[in-house]
Write a structure and sequence with these properties.
By secondary structure, the protein is of the alpha+beta class. It has seven helices and nine strands; from the N terminus they run αβαββββαβββααβαα. The strands form two sheets. The chain has a five-stranded mixed sheet. A four-stranded mixed sheet has the order 1-4-3-2, with helices on one face. A hairpin with a 3-residue loop joins strand 2 and strand 3. The protein is globular and about 60 Å long.
């Protein structure tokens, strides 16, 4: 075991701790461990770090584990509409990587639950076999630009975002349209009469970007 010695211990303890360095992992409870394990291995292009009768630990980067799935045969179903976790999110380094993951999952029969441009991210959501919602995203802005965007008037009116047609966005990306155009809200609108895909029971929001 390798650790870095902390010599300024009194100073560290007196500092109040500050904020966490990173968000490390998420733990899910399930009655169907093999099914959930395989879904997250597929969704995230992950691998098993450890698996036993009690749990599967999954990783996809230099962290020892990012997702843990606990095997609890007697847990209740996910209660939609109840207070609790809404979703969790994974960021991709490029728009191309996000769309490539969408194409790969589509070919495997895994379809999005929602596609929306939040302004600061282009986001494609999925549902796991237990009904938990997962966001995959690409950052459209720098952190400074996102801070400014969230202080603007449109975000006050519509903090959710504008829906997009993932096939339209994919076609524009493949055609070579500039990325600065593709990350804009309303860059890939649904055709007239085409139903938007979105989770049920969403509050009203400016899904077509009419207020922009």
């Amino acid at each position: 075991m390798t650790v870095i010695e902390e010599r300024n211990r009194d100073e560290l303890v007196a500092s109040g701790g500050g904020s966490p360095e990173k968000f490390a992992h998420i733990v899910l409870r399930t009655r169907q461990l093999p099914v959930m394990r395989d879904f997250y291995l597929t969704l995230l292009n992950a691998r098993v770090a450890h698996e036993g009768q009690m749990a599967a630990f999954l990783r996809y980067d230099d962290e020892h584990h990012r997702v843990v799935i606990l095997n609890l045969p007697h847990v209740d179903d996910v209660q939609h509409g109840a207070a609790g976790l809404e979703h969790f999110s994974f960021t991709y380094p490029t728009m191309g990587a996000l769309l490539a993951n969408y194409v790969r999952l589509k070919e495997l029969g895994i379809q999005p639950d929602w596609c929306i441009n939040h302004g600061f991210t282009t986001s494609i959501y999925y549902r796991d076999p237990d009904g938990n919602q997962i966001e995959t995203q690409f950052d459209n802005m720098t952190m400074e630009e996102a801070d400014e965007f969230m202080q603007g008037g449109y975000f006050d009116q519509n903090p959710i975002g504008v829906d997009f047609d993932r096939e339209v966005l994919l076609a524009r990306y493949r055609k070579g349209d500039p990325l600065e155009k593709l990350v804009q809200m309303k860059s890939a609108p649904y055709a007239e009469g085409v139903a938007h895909i979105r989770p049920p029971n969403m509050p009203p929001y400016d899904a077509d970007g009419d207020l922009l």
